[in-house]
Specification:
With 188 residues, the chain is an alpha+beta fold. The chain is 28% helix and 32% strand.
Length: 188
C-alpha cells in the first residue's frame, strides 16, 4: 500500500517474519495523513458529481451538449446590432431541460449551472439557418428568445438533435407547433 505514495527516500527496515516496515518521522506521517484526507475529499467530490449527473440524466426531459452563444435584442431607439456572422463565439455547453427551467452547464459534471432561464420567460423558439465552420461540419441552429430580450442561439451537428430540442421547447413553452421550426431552415 505504501508503494502507491511517491515519497522517495523513506527508510525501510527489516521486520520479523519476512515483512518489511517503514519508519516515518512525525512530519512524514502528518504529510501522509493530509494526503489521504485530500484524496478522500476528492473522492467525495467526484462521487457527488457522478450522482448529480446521474440524477440529471434520469430526471431531465432532455439534455445534451449544444453550441451556445447569447445575444441581446436591441432596445427601442438603439441601432441594430452589427452583423457578427464572422465571429466564432459558439461555446459548447451541457444544456438540460428540467422542471420549469433550462439549465446551461459548462460541463456535464458541473454541480451548478452557469446560467438558467425559466420556460415561462421564453416567448419565441425558432430555427436559424445552418452554417459551416472551420471544422467543415454543418451546424444546425435555433434560437430561444426570452421576455427580457435575451436570445440564446443554439447549434448542433445533428439535425435530429435540433428537431428534438425545437419540438420539446415548443411543447414545454406552449408556443404551439410552428411548421417552419420542424423543416430545414436552409430550405426556406
Amino acid at each position: 500500500m505504501l508503494n502507491l505514495f511517491s515519497l522517495k527516500g523513506l527508510p525501510w527496515g527489516s521486520g520479523t517474519g519476512g515483512q518489511e516496515k517503514v519508519e516515518l518521522t512525525v512530519a512524514e506521517l502528518e504529510s501522509l495523513k493530509t494526503e489521504l484526507a485530500d484524496l478522500e475529499e476528492r473522492e467525495a467530490h467526484l462521487k457527488a458529481q457522478l450522482e448529480h449527473v446521474d440524477e440529471i440524466l434520469r430526471s431531465a426531459r432532455l439534455s445534451g451538449y449544444l453550441y451556445i452563444r447569447t445575444r441581446w435584442t436591441a432596445l427601442p431607439g438603439e441601432p441594430p446590432p452589427l452583423d457578427d456572422a464572422e465571429v466564432d463565439d459558439w461555446l459548447p455547453r451541457f444544456v438540460v431541460l428540467h422542471g420549469s427551467c433550462i439549465f446551461f452547464y459548462l460541463l456535464s459534471t458541473d454541480l451548478s449551472p452557469q446560467d438558467s432561464t425559466l420556460l415561462s420567460d421564453i416567448v419565441e423558439v425558432g430555427p436559424l439557418p445552418s452554417f459551416t465552420r472551420e471544422d467543415e461540419q454543418t451546424r444546425y441552429s435555433f434560437y430561444i428568445l426570452t421576455c427580457h430580450g435575451l436570445r440564446y442561439e443554439c447549434a448542433s451537428v445533428s439535425k435530429i438533435q435540433l428537431d428534438t430540442w425545437l419540438t420539446a421547447l415548443q411543447t414545454e413553452c406552449k408556443l404551439g407547433p410552428d411548421k417552419s421550426a420542424i423543416n430545414d431552415p436552409s430550405e426556406m
